[in-house]
């Protein structure tokens, strides 16, 4: 049978996309291609009922099949050669750093290439994706891609020149936030709280603070001021974070990640 969506690469991001897409749109016939028999079998168990195959076959591809490319940058060239033989006319790439022009060069003339940068909360439909279209994209290609990415959370459209910045910010951001959460859990333990209690306090505060920010319409600054009485305990804690340059650490972290994204694309 032919599929509407073929996700190539059943790793972290490919699995998140296939899971999110199947949950929100079970009507979209989706296939995952994961190389290697053992890994394909393990991926099939994890993603069931989404089918998983080891490689492309002609009968998987129909006139309206689109591919979502979810492999590492150094694995792309081999995959493009495989896609080029199948007649697929639309390729969505989540590969960090690789430009649409670079991908188009490895595909038959006229293939529509859309770059997308989702993040891992996509697995529970709470991610955010940025997308940009390449030279051959029509409005229909962009609208179709947006409708697929919307099953994973919210979507923003940006010019392709902004994709390194997006990758460094929202693509990598779950890792930055988990580091903050880990550190705060450790800080609670250092103050004599059990690890379980500290974890619950931190994780629930993290979720609640995000929800408050999202629903209140207030700025992060005003929500921070609301917790900070003059001369109080929160002010004492914030003074340490400011003196240790936490803001500039985040600025530099995102700048380094954006530079790495540019390097990966060269
Ligand atoms: N993880 C994130 O948070 C995130 C966020 C946004 C974008 N991305 C982008 O998503 C892409 C994938 O990242 P990832 O973290 O999901 O990597 P990953 O976990 O390593 O997954 C890549 C998968 O693709 C498989 N693969 C490689 N070549 C293949 C081929 N020719 N046919 C079929 N399967 C093939 C790999 O199999 P093997 O194990 O055999 O190599 C692996 O299972 C990257 O380009 C990254 O820039 C990731």
What features would you describe in this structure?
With 266 residues, this protein is an alpha/beta fold. The chain has 2 domains: 3-160, Rossmann fold (3-Layer(aba) Sandwich); 173-265, ProC C-terminal domain-like fold (Orthogonal Bundle). Helices cover 52% and strands 16% of the residues. It contains 11 helices and 8 strands. The protein has helices at residues 12-24, 37-47, 76-84, 100-105, 139-149, 163-171, 173-190, 195-216, 220-227, 233-243, 246-265; strands at 3-8, 30-33, 52-53, 61-69, 90-93, 112-117, 127-133, 153-157. It has an 8-stranded mixed β-sheet with strand order 3-2-1-4-5-6-7-8, with helices on both faces. The protein is elongated. NADP nicotinamide-adenine-dinucleotide phosphate is lined by residues 8-14, 33-36, 39, 70-73, 75, 78-79, 94-96, 117-120, 171.
What can be said about this structure in brief?
The protein is α/β, with parallel strands linked by helices and 266 residues long. It contains 11 helices and 8 strands.
């Amino acid at each position: 049978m032919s599929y509407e969506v073929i996700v190539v690469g059943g790793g972290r991001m490919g699995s998140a996309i296939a899971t999110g897409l199947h949950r929100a749109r079970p009507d979209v016939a989706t296939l995952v291609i994961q190389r290697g028999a053992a890994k394909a079998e393990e991926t099939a168990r994890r993603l069931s009922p989404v089918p998983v195959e080891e490689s492309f076959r002609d009968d998987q591809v129909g006139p309206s099949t689109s591919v979502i490319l979810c492999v590492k940058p150094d694995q792309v060239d081999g995959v493009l050669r495989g896609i080029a033989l199948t007649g697929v006319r639309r390729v969505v790439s989540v590969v960090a750093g690789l430009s649409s022009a670079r991908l188009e060069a490895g595909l038959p003339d006229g293939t529509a290439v859309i770059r997308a940068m989702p993040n891992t909360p996509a697995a529970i439909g709470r991610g955010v994706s940025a997308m940009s279209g390449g030279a051959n994209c029509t409005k229909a290609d962009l609208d179709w891609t947006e409708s697929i990415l919307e099953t994973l959370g919210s979507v923003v459209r940006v010019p392709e020149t902004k994709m390194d910045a997006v990758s460094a910010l929202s693509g990598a951001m779950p890792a930055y936030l988990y580091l903050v959460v880990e550190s705060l859990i450790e800080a609670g333990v250092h103050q004599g709280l059990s690890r379980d209690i500290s974890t619950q306090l931190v994780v629930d505060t993290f979720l609640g603070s995000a929800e408050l920010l999202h629903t209140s319409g207030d700025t992060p600054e005003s929500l921070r001021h609301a917790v900070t009485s003059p001369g109080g305990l929160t002010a004492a804690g914030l003074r340490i974070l400011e003196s240790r340059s936490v803001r500039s650490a985040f600025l530099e972290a995102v700048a380094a990640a954006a530079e790495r994204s540019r390097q990966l694309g060269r």
